[in-house]
Design goal:
By secondary structure, the protein is mainly α. Helices cover 76% and strands 0% of the residues. The protein has three helices and no strands. The two termini are 26 Å apart.
């Protein structure tokens, strides 16, 4: 279940990046920087979650969502 969640987050980040790539002429530079930073943080949250899910043992999977969330929060 958590792998599916992290994969969905990665797909959403990629779709948002593609939208931003094609619509970049309509936004100002400061808006582009803010939006692209949030998309990068969303993408890194998904990657970090997949990595943590692959490394941690199966008995600790209930607490796997907290570690990527903390890493995402500290990335802000």
């Amino acid at each position: 279940m958590t792998r599916r969640l992290f994969r969905i987050v990665i797909v959403i980040a990629i779709v948002l990046w593609i939208f931003l790539f094609f619509a970049k002429a309509t936004f100002s530079n400061s808006t582009l920087i803010i939006i692209s930073s949030l998309i990068f943080l969303l993408f890194s949250f998904g990657i970090q979650g997949l990595i943590a899910h692959s490394i941690r043992p199966p008995e600790s999977r209930g607490e796997l969502i907290t570690f990527p969330l903390l890493m995402w929060y500290f990335g802000l």
